[in-house]
Amino acid sequence: MPEDFITLTFPDGATKKYHKNITGFEVAESISKGLARNAISITLDSDILDLDAPITRSGEIQINTWDSEDGQYTFWHSSAHLLAEAVQELYPEAKFGIGPPIENGFYYDIDFGEESFGQEQLEAVEKKMIELARQKSNFKKRNVSKDEALKFYEERNNEYKVDLIKELEEGTITFYEQGNFTDLCRGPHLPDTSSIKAVKLTKLAGAYWRGDVNRKQLTRIYGISFPKQKLLDEYLKQLEEARKRDHKKLGKELGIYMMDSMVGPGLPLWLPNGTVLRRTLEHFLREEQKHRGYQEVITPHIANIELYKTSGHYPYYKDSQFNPMEVDDDHYMLKPMNCPHHHRIYSNELRSYRDLPVRLAEFGSVYRYEQSGELNGLSRVRGFTQDDAHIYCTHDQLKDEIKNVIDLTQFVFKTFGMPVDIRLSYRDDNDEKYGGDYEYWERAQKEIKEAADEMNLNYKIVDGEASFYGPKIDFIIRDAIGRKWQLGTVQVDYVMPERFDLTYIGSDNNKHRPVIIHRAPFGSMERFVSILIEHFAGDFPLWLAPLQVKVLPISEDYNAYAKHCADKLTALGTRVEVDSRSEMIGGKIRDAETAKIPYMLIVGERELENGTVSIRRHKSGDIGTFSLEEFLSKVDEEIKNKHLPPSHLEEE
RNA sequence: GCCGGAGUAGCUCAGGGGCAGAGCAACGCUCUCGUAAAGCGUAGGUCGUCGGUUCAAAUCCGAUCUCCGGCUCCA
Fold this sequence. Notes:
The protein has 652 residues and is α+β, with helices and mostly antiparallel strands. The protein has four domains: 5-65, Ubiquitin-like (UB roll) (Roll), CATH 3.10.20.30; 70-236, Threonyl-tRNA Synthetase, Chain A, domain 2 (2-Layer Sandwich); 257-536, Bira Bifunctional Protein, Domain 2 (BirA Bifunctional Protein, domain 2); 549-651, Anticodon-binding domain (Rossmann fold, 3-Layer(aba) Sandwich). The chain has 21 helices and 35 strands. Helix 3 packs across helix 4 and helix 5 (146-155) packs antiparallel against helix 6. The protein is globular and about 80 Å long. It binds one RNA strand of 75 nucleotides through strand 14, strand 15, helix 8, helix 11 and strand 27.
């Protein structure tokens, strides 16, 4: 091929020849006018480029519009610049840090100096952004030398950009300009500001420069923008919907839990309905574990500090534990984890290789001193209960045991129809963060990966996320407003067996070290329940619902028959109540619907005469009249098989 | 811990130096009803807490507690 031609491959596999140095815009134009009009940037192989940048090589090309992730990324990146331009207009002294696009929008970190910046100021900036966007300023790219770049920001006393530029290579530094605003930036950007039609500045936060608590805290402005007002309206509506499933709101409405300032922050009190929910979950896992060879144990909530010094937890996590208390001449601590207690139980008897694996399980409550700003409903608390277990096995058994545990965890999430992300958490090069020998780590990381591969898990490997004693598999889920939380975890540990001098007698009659697997499918009952509430939006599967059936007599004349139906259900073990208030049936139905009770049984003259019940399902409405016996077996079947609620099945 | 918001009846919220408000819930009475709200009435408050300014503070100021959104952290 002659040198001045390149070949571009499109997402559908088609290829086309172009002159070298053709721009992305021209390529788009060659396909259709509409595409050229909507084009935002292009992605060449994995690089996102400006629309007017000359394309110098062959490769796979994608024209990015608003409908692609890369297109939105470009759109929001330019919006961040627009935000900065608006701030600069209103606050000429403001100094800019970084302003990247994020998953939903963008932010910019800004040093306002002595100026105070609050909610009220946000609106003015928002208005200014729209005003500036309408001026249709072009985003102009310019190559600058390192000296020139440094000089530019030194003149403006912007130590943040200087800090950034110092780390850049000569020859790779570019500035982007739009209107009166110039920014250090690698791009790419929109052709001009005019496509930014709707802007909402959503949050104001403090953010440390470079994420370092010891450096200055800048003001971070979060925002989101769209090419159409309608899209912004939809986004805001969606946010509002999401807030309706917030477990803090539903937890209160459904009587799941409460917080009380006299009890203390981060210390949830489980209300009767929440307790039913939690105990049902515990029973579910306890039964499953029984079938899988676990033995349950119970350990106290405090222990001598020596226990945690032996485990090595104490020096690593000193700051996130409640202060020790003095008892006689010793120091005791609220337990921040269950593992050391279980290790002592393991050591309580001489173990033979014939006994392994030993699987010790406990719903163990632990207490951790989380920073006050971190506490969040049931998701992040200072006292919580882990569905903890420790498996002591031989090296040969390790991989199979990991697979068993993964299988259990998958089974749990499948039962609730929950989508989870799986992460293999490895160590990084910061040796101070981890205990134990490097070669153990290598081995554990390898075993985990092999097990995950053999189970066909779809995972991501993340370095630096391991615990201090070993690598792990984490199960991550998102809450109603998109935040990620870790639920289940499976961790391999070669360190604790050494520290606690754990042994078993092998077939060779010698002592050997077992390996430990730490695991918690739910993670913590508190966090799991918070996610469960949001996942089902309070519309729980029948087997989990705190109140499963409400019997609604048409009038007081049918209270006795309603009671009769309820008694039959109670005898079956169903959680049932009768609404015998002197309300009209419509009112009773409404109250039961808003309380999200799965089944309503309406009984009046017709039902009394025929020994039937009229069934209403939450969210689905009237589903017809059945004999009481039919309903009993229907409920029984639905509970036994842990059906998901109808509303949820439709969504899947 | 840090930055920004918020806290008024059981719940959702209005009021913003001059008598503490509404809807829902609760309680009482009437109604006895067929698939998402019956009617009337009654009661309910140290306006998170402590202090200051003022003739007068729910309202202005300061401190503090708790909650929410971020940052940092997260066994």
